Amino acid sequence: MSDLLNIYQKLTLLDCPCCGGTGVLEEENGWCWYAVCMDCGAQTGSFEYRDEAGRYAAAAQAAKIWNMGKVISPAPGE
Fold first, then answer.
1. pTM
2. Which of 29, 34, 35, 62 has its CA 20 to 30 A from that of 15?
């Protein structure tokens, strides 16, 4: 559990590039990370990892892409 807390402490997400809502990092069943907006549902793609060594790198990549504003929005026309 300390590894997970370490990831959340080291990585910062900016507000959602679509609506300004709160972004969070999500881990999906131990194989990937993505960032998602708690308000509008915009999200990054999934960043896979295969082992513990790649876990932080995948989370960092998801945070980086989110902070660059490269997200998929569930809004009509997207």
1. 0.88
2. 29
